[in-house]
Amino acid sequence: MTAEAVQPSGVPRGERGAITVADRVVAKTASRVAREALSRFTDSTGHVPPGRRTPRVTASVQQAPERSATGRDAESAARGQAVLGEVHMHITVELGYPSDIGAQCAAVRREVTQRVRTWAGMEVSDLVVSVERLHSVHTRHTDQGRVR
What we know:
This protein has helices spanning 3-6, 23-39, 42-45, 71-79, 101-120; strands at residues 56-63, 85-97, 122-136. By secondary structure, the chain is an alpha+beta fold.
């Protein structure tokens, strides 16, 4: 190699390329984190059948615009972390009943927001947690769908 090939192009290191994170990567990360958050609620997870414990996540990533010294980029720069974009997410979970549904949803929101920011470098601008189904201890071993 020649000395010219080793030399950088003169463009500052942080501006040489781009990093993109796919929607499905963020969704898979969020699903894992949500499952971990819900596993801490042992009174609820025992009621949910094993095949239904994995939350379903849809994510829509919007890549970060050109960097500037204003707004969220300035806040992130002050914290020492680059923001790669924003993500809108919808997480659907199935929970055991009776349990503290609000605490479980809050734990999912808190941990997913924090870890997606840390692991993927994304700001979570919109996060909806929906409870699709409640699994009661009374209906676990029967064929009926509702308790009357």
